[in-house]
Amino acid sequence: MSIIAPDLVVTGDLVASGVVRVEGRVHGSVIAEQQILLSQGGAVAGDMRTREAVLAGEVNGSVTATDRIEVQSSAVVNGDIVTPRLLIQEGGRINGAIRMESVTTEATE
What we know:
By secondary structure, this protein is mainly beta. It has strands at residues 2-4, 9-11, 14-16, 19-22, 25-27, 30-32, 35-38, 43-44, 48-55, 58-60, 63-71, 76-78, 81-82, 86-88, 93-94, 98-99.
């Protein structure tokens, strides 16, 4: 698991083969083969691509997942979502289009 700590700001794209947990800020795309965990208070200004995303922070960009996306009650997504399965908890906000369709594995590369 790769962790971006709460006091860390990363400028540039992140690519990981496992799990990425973002507690701080990322200015760039985040691509993780397995999972992206965006903690409450964390923020990503860029696109996200993964197998599974669990979002509790703020995203300014599109989110694409081959398996599922969970938008928790504290999350704000300002961008489009593409995934075959989606869970939105009460209070979670999405400002963009949602496409519930299968995503090929090429989309996460």
